Amino acid sequence: MPFCPRCREEYDASVARCAECGAELVASLDAASAAAGSREARILVEDEQVGRSLVDALLVEGLQVNLDADKHPWRDRMVPAVVVPADLQEFVAVLVTRSDRFQVVETDEQGRGLVGFFDPTSLAALRRHPLIRRKPKDIAAMGEAVIPELVELLAAGEPEIRRWASRRLLDQGAAGATALRGALFSGVSQGDRDLVFTAIRALDEAEAGGVPVDRSVPAAVRGALTAEDPSARALGCLVLGRFGARDDVARLIPLLADPEPLVLEEAVEAIEALTGVALGLHAGCTAEEREREVARLRDALTREGGDG
């Protein structure tokens, strides 16, 4: 009898594709494992108790997994890691998202997550959005009418659900990219770093796939540079570095004196991206060093005909 290589479900011999995920069926689960080769994916977890619980849950689903350890990608420590076949990584992520026992408790800028035990408030959010339980191809077929619901999911706050919603918005082409752009700028004004990075990753993917993306920046993003919230200031710098213009350098220069290290870091990176001028500034620099680097930047812009 054939099996789905992703969901691991057994089907009647007359069936060619999985009813759940659309994958082409294989003759056996051994064939699925052989096709995947020795590739692995590692699902990082908060502690060993979470790891063992997740392993047990995946074994119930028929997945061959084990518990190992790996270095936490954005903290200097080792954490347990559940090792799964690489081709099943997205399936596991969806399983975690839908679970009433686990959730992704934090993510880094590249979207790598750390799984922890479930917060009951997440289940309430999930139940409010039955759209998540529908197949991607069915959601894509709904057309632009589904975009407001997907934007609502982007705003829900759970990282895995946000990434799921961003992928579904990509299925909507240019209209989905427009919605992602709006979510990006909303994230800046809210100081929501995860939302901003989720939207940026999705927009980069859209452009790589040939979808036109409007790169103009609304006034509200530039206004975030003077916001009271340092997270909003930092995100304003980040977005201008990605989507801004040379004229924005003059707006970014005052942020080089910002007392918040993250704001300074993002301002430096944005100016470097917009001008190509490397700045030797960091959180521990003195006022004299900062003035010297700013003067050097202005000189470089003047020589090139810019207006810093």
Write up this protein.
The model has no long low-confidence stretch (mean pLDDT 81). This protein is an alpha+beta fold. Among the domains are: 1-37, no CATH class; 38-118, Alpha-Beta Plaits; 229-308, no CATH class. Helix 6 packs parallel to helix 8 (173-190). It has helices at residues 29-36, 48-60, 89-98, 120-127, 136-141, 147-154, 159-170, 173-190, 193-208, 219-223, 230-243, 249-252, 261-275, 287-303, and strands at 40-45, 66-71, 78-85, 102-107, 113-117. The longest helix has 18 residues, at 173-190. The chain contains 14 helices and five strands. Strands 2-3-1-5-4 form a five-stranded mixed beta sheet, with helices on one face.
Residue-averaged pLDDT: 81
Name the shape in a single word: elongated
Oligomer: single chain
Spatial strand arrangement across the major sheet: 2-3-1-5-4
| Number of H/I helices | 14
Number of beta strands: 5
Radius of gyration using CA atoms only: 23 Å
Any descriptors?
308 residues, alpha+beta, Alpha-Beta Plaits, five-stranded mixed sheet, 50% helix
Structure summary:
With 308 residues, the protein is an alpha+beta fold. Helices cover 50% and strands 10% of the residues. The chain contains 14 helices and five strands.
Provide the fold topology.
Blueprint lengths: L28 H8 L3 E6 L2 H13 L5 E6 L6 E8 L3 H10 L3 E6 L5 E5 L2 H8 L8 H6 L5 H8 L4 H12 L2 H18 L2 H16 L10 H5 L6 H14 L5 H4 L8 H15 L11 H17 L5
Parallel strand pairs: 1-5
Antiparallel strand pairs: 1-3, 2-3, 4-5
Helix pairs in contact: 6-7, 6-8, 7-8, 7-9, 8-9, 8-11, 11-13
